[in-house]
Amino acid sequence: MTDEKKINIVLAGQGNSGKSRVFNFLTGLHQHIGNWAGKTIEKAEGTLFYRDHTIDVLDLPGIYSLTTVSDEELISREYIIKQNPDWVINVVDSTNLERSLIFTLQLLELERPVIIALNMTDLAKRKGISVDARKLQTVLGVPVIPTVASRGSGLTKIIDRVIDLKNARPARKVHKYGKEIEQGIEKLTGLLKDVDLPYPLRWVAIKLLEKDGDITAMVSERKPEAVEIALRITEGLEEIHGHDSPLVIADERSLLASRITRETVKIARNRKLSLNERLDALSTHKVSGYLLMALILGGMFFMVFSFGNWFSGWLEPIFAGWHDWWKINAGTSFWPALGWSAVESVLALVQIAFPYILPFYILLYLLEDWGYIARISFLMDKLMHKMGIHGKACISFIIGLGCNVPGCLSCRIMESKRERFITAVLVTLVPCSAVSVIVFGLVGKYVGLLWALGLYVFATILIFIVGKISSRLMIGEPVELIMPMPDYKTPQVKTILLQTWEALKEFIYIAAPIVIISGVLIQAINLAGWMPAIASVMSPVTVNWLGLPAVTGILLIFGVLRKELILVMLAAYLGTTSFSEVLTSTQMITLAVVSMFYVPCVATISVLWKEYGWKKALLISLIETLFAILLAGLVKRLLDIFMA
Amino acid sequence: MHHGQGDDYSGNSLRLADLEDGQTGVIVSVLGGKMLTKRLADLGITSGKDVRVIRKTIFSGPVQVEVAGSKLVIGWGLASKIMVEVK
Fold first, then answer.
1. Could you tell me the CA-to-CA distances from A169 to A9, A54, A112, A161, A390 in Å, in that order?
2. What is the ipTM of this complex?
3. Closest CA in chain B for residue A178
4. How far apart, in whole angstroms, are the C-alpha atoms of residue A355 and residue A548?
5. What is the distance between the alpha carbons of residues A228 and A218, in angstroms, rounded to a whole number?
6. Could you tell me which of A32, A16, A25, A149 has the C-alpha nearest to residue A501?
7. Of A161, A205, A375, A507, which has fewest CB within 10 angstroms of its CB?
């Protein structure tokens, strides 16, 4: 294959415009999708083979501007300029055209070949918005192609265009600012003409007037007088307009975006409120919003529990039958017993964890795809402020309910370092689906649903208290919430099932091997007769303080790998899932409390390590372990008094 | 567009947070640091733009607004720094 047949394209655009959907369609990969801005936290790469061409596709995180304030913006900007992609595909949300154009105008200033994917045209139509793509193309001076990324429509057209226009790029159109700004730009480009810069001249001039730190520093190294003159021009602009010069430029860009929108968009008036708009009103209303939230989260809790119990109960006799068959045909001596523990571990994983985790992820992704999570952020913002963070943290919490690892990673949507860290610490306290397996499968099933619900309420209160304390400990200005509110979308069954499958794959490829090895190891320790020795080392904590059977010590150690192991290994070790035969109600609740709050699992610790350094990661783990043991011991003593 | 009177918010301008549900105003100025005004500008909140309050929530919680044809949620503290003139 020759070099000529290789093309690389970059997907750029604002948060929640559908870049990852475009990426998934083109590359056949599975970038996570959801209806909120900020999901893609790391760039993703994939390849497409089409019409004899190899096309490398890069998905960038959603950004709202190319003036460097956040890391994502800097990374994206550098990629678009330095990597010199053949094409930048600007994915634009056609239901939010005006806002999207503010970014598009900045992108065009970078003078890279751009194609605009006018996305979500189906939703725009439903909202009564019609965008004249042809006119937009004329006004912007770049190809505009209407798409519906969720169905893949229009996307091959873009790739066709990318290939066809490979050697014939349309002439660039310059979008002009007001007279004073243009005079300034002209003066600066004249000065910089003979300076060697890796960026387009006009763009550098605009950035100087916008007081961009990076660019100003770069120019002052090569041509200091240009910076001085830029300063004088900005002072002039500030005098005329009465505010900061970056703002003067932002205002003009913003007004230009309005003008282009007025020219190209028609909105049908007086249409009936759609179902989604009614739902939006209901779900963010000062009274019904909170009621609905309680109903949705409570309903989710109840559905996971009842489905899980039913499914788990249905599997139980089947697997018990298999065990009997094994005992009869393979015997009960050392090796068959060890072999069975490997099988039993997997069966226990399937029987205990899977029935709860499956509905959990389906419902979580349903809420995410629908667009409900942003509503929770809106409703909870005020409460979050009491913890020194803001409403967006709720997104991380909800993601953390599934798994703390993406929960911690999603903390990057928080604007400041301080808020990111506080949110991440709180996410490690959010009961993930593995912990929910213990809460539902042990406490819910054998002690009562209300007790399981109580544990969640308890966790919520605890998170609030810890948040309050950490916001006091970590001094800093709280950042205010600014968040685009996504429209509700009809959730797509296919998307939800695909994402659920992605989550469950991790279960098969990572959890299952760990479970088998741990199961065999524990059984080997047991059969070799070492269990009492190991258990006795831990017994001051497990037996004396927590009042649990000695074997739980070793389970809690294995639980660091994955928390559902605690219950799965208990079943494998006992050879039964009838936990009520070996644990009292108090013991079940105590075990659940320890499991909920003690050291985050290794995967979470490694994410904390990566994001915040090893010191903080280990400190969090240590503090949470000590705290969980202390707390669970106190809970046990309280229960002893009340349940006696 | 004339911004000359942009910072004169002593007259009949209000804080965005003071608008009632459904009311529309024109943004006169944004009182805040560089970072804040930039974040707002990226989302289309700049002087001269119309902004409509869709809904507020209880206890001085965030304000849901529509600006530049898009729906945004803005924290109360921030909505108190955006000065508007009622149309």
1. 15, 20, 10, 10, 45
2. 0.85
3. B1
4. 26
5. 13
6. A32
7. A161
Closest residue, chain A, to B49 (C-alpha): A255
For residue A205, being part of any structural domain is answered with yes
Tally of CB atoms within 10 A around A78: 13
Grouping H, G, I as helix, E, B as strand and the rest as coil, residue A592 is helix
pTM above 0.95, yes or no: no
> To the nearest whole angstrom, how far is the Cα of B57 from the nearest Cα of chain A?
5
CA atoms within 13 A on the CB side of A520: 12
Nearest CA-CA distance, residue A644 and chain B, Å: 42
DSSP symbols for A245-277: HHHHHHHHHHHHHHHHHHHHEEE--SPPPPHHH
Predicted confidence band at B3 (pLDDT cuts at 50, 70, 90)? Answer: very low
Residue B73 near residue A481 (C-beta atoms within 8 A)? yes
Does any CB of chain A come closer than 8 Å to the CB of residue B72? Answer: yes
Residue A146: half-sphere exposure toward Cβ, Cα within 13 Å: 14
Chain A residue numbers touching B60 (CB-CB < 8 A): 382
Contact A481 B73 (CB under 8 A): yes
- The partner residue sitting opposite B3, judged by closest CB among A64, A243, A284, is A243
Window from A325-339, A493-507, A548-562 with minimum mean pLDDT: A325-339
Q: Do both A407 and A470 map to the same domain?
A: yes
Chain A hits for B37, Cβ within 8 Å: 244, 246-247, 250
- Partners of A7 in the β-ladder: A55
- Strand residues in A60-108 grouped as ranges (E): 87-93
Flag whether pLDDT at A67 surpasses 80: no
CB contact under 8 A, A242 and B3: yes
In B, minimum Cα distance to A374 occurs at B73
Same domain, A149 and A298: no
Q: Which of A388-402, A593-607, B8-22 has the lowest mean pLDDT?
A: B8-22
Q: Do residues A341 and A477 both lie within one domain?
A: yes
Domain termination residue (choose one: A131, A164, A197) = A164
Alpha carbon distances (Å) from A433 to A308, A362, A400, A502, A506: 12, 12, 9, 15, 13
Residues on chain A touching B7 (C-beta within 8 angstroms): 242-243
Domains in chain B with CATH codes = 13-86 (2.30.30.90)
Residues of chain B with C-beta less than 8 angstroms from the C-beta of A248: 3
**What pLDDT does residue A169 have?**
67
The verdict on residue A147 lying in a domain is yes
- CA-to-CA distance for A288 and A501, rounded, in angstroms? 34
